[in-house]
Design goal:
Two copies of one chain form a homodimer. The first copy, chain A, has 274 residues and is an alpha/beta fold. Chain A contains twelve helices and eight strands. The first copy, chain A, has a single domain, classed as TIM Barrel, CATH 3.20.20.70.
Chain lengths: 274, 274
């Protein structure tokens, strides 16, 4: 999916919601635990219940890897299910990988050729040759960590260099030499408020993947005020607030309602734009 | 395995070699491809052939993930085989993970509770709360990326802050507040030469995991000159130069010879110490 196609999906669905599939055996409704593959059953129900209200799904790989081989099977089945039934939804593997050239190449093959996802999150610490192997695929996206939503973002990402430029800005600036706005998005945490202005000065046209709305406390209104551009330019992620809206038999209906509520707010924000 | 136990193993084997299991279906001897699990067969032979000459094995997760579920099975079997047959070898999951607190906790469970490896490589970009969830396990190690061996290390790791301190030194300094030398090691690339002096000024007593000797061109002598401390303090990794010493039927014997050769050089370096 290219940038224009993504924007078309956003306009069509009146939503720029990405739903994070942080699916955890200890948090899904207990009646699902008797199923053969509880995580896949959960994901399938969540996806069916929310697909009308979102444009992307983001499985967080930690939640699958922690179940070993079985977790990996759940993940592959989930991706296959979305691709088969909802082929216009972007699938983002939230993997935050980053390694030297020949290893990054293996990760790129893993995500783009084997799993066939549309996008993968990548960590910038190891520099250019850890990112470029992911950029050789048409209509596939690298979503580079820039300014994250967590407390630890302050430790290094906000550290300023000699010119007073914080590290996350160096990442934004340097990475634009590695790929263009049809290949690169950036992770910018919803909790970062006015720093979105600085982000938009560096990358006015790129899409941003924005976690941290919902459970982590970020505000959708603020994110839109400072972060929205003329092609929307935002994928706002919500995980726990939607997929765990209920822990009971009505979990799918509750997730649907929660997603619809976010979508309604997003439609209002998009109305300023369209 | 704690720090003293690791040092005892190093003295006993006269080696501080870590062998990287970057096992790749396109590079292992072709006669193994008819086996049911070629990667596991390859790893088993490599481990049996080299265990006398090394103190650690480091499977690089990219090479397993790229084969999906089958790759994950090969990885679990490899780890189980080493743990069962060579329980005094340190197993390092080279995963370079890094994510916010609740996700980092899932990764920590994955590696330390499910896979039961001894150590995992972690990326520092997201700061303290992306690292501390890995530090709550006794006799388990976080190996934090600091100064890597690749060209891209220059892009951000060597960038200086206002005080002239490069980012990798900030990582070394900040992380010492998060954990101690019984919990933390650092990745320092063998290609970094004299920068090892700076590293040792920051972390005189920590173990360093040093990739980049061999295929990437780093020198063992230089690494030892600048990086060795009174408890050795080094785990020097070699992957391709050992596991792919031959691509034919004699691959295991060739790997054994290559590992023994490195071990012989390491014994000389250790003689200055002991």
């Amino acid at each position: 999916m290219n940038k224009q196609e993504l924007f078309e999906e956003i306009k069509k669905k009146q939503s720029f919601l990405c739903i994070g599939l942080d699916s955890d055996l200890t948090k899904i409704p207990s009646h699902l635990l008797k199923e053969k593959d509880p995580i896949f059953s959960f994901n399938k129900s969540i996806v069916d219940a929310t697909a009308n209200y979102c444009v992307a799904y983001k499985p967080n790989l930690a939640f699958y890897e922690c179940n070993g081989v079985e977790g990996w099977i759940s993940l592959e089945k989930t991706i296959d299910y979305i691709q088969t039934n909802y082929p216009h939804h972007l699938i983002i593997a939230d993997a935050k990988r980053g390694d030297i050239g020949n290893t990054a190449k293996m990760y790129a093959q893993c995500f783009f050729e084997k799993m066939k996802v549309d996008a993968v999150t990548v960590a910038p610490y190891m520099g250019k040759d850890s990112v470029t192997p992911f950029l050789g695929y048409t209509n596939k996206w690298v979503i580079l960590l820039a300014l994250t939503s967590n407390e630890g973002a302050k430790d290094f990402q906000l550290q300023q260099n000699k010119e007073g430029t914080p590290l996350f800005e160096e990442v934004l600036t340097a990475s634009q030499k590695w790929g263009n706005e049809e290949q690169l998005m950036y992770v910018i945490g919803a909790t970062q408020g006015e720093l979105f202005k600085k982000v938009r000065q560096c990358v006015p046209n790129h899409f941003l993947l924005v976690p941290g709305v919902g459970a982590q406390g970020g505000s959708l209104k603020d994110v839109c005020r400072y972060g929205m551009n003329k092609t929307c330019g935002l994928l706002v992620n919500s995980s726990r607030a939607i997929i765990y809206a209920s822990h009971s038999f009505d979990f799918a209906e509750s997730a649907s309602r929660a997603a619809k509520q976010v979508q309604t707010e997003m439609a209002k924000e998009l109305s300023h734009l369209l």
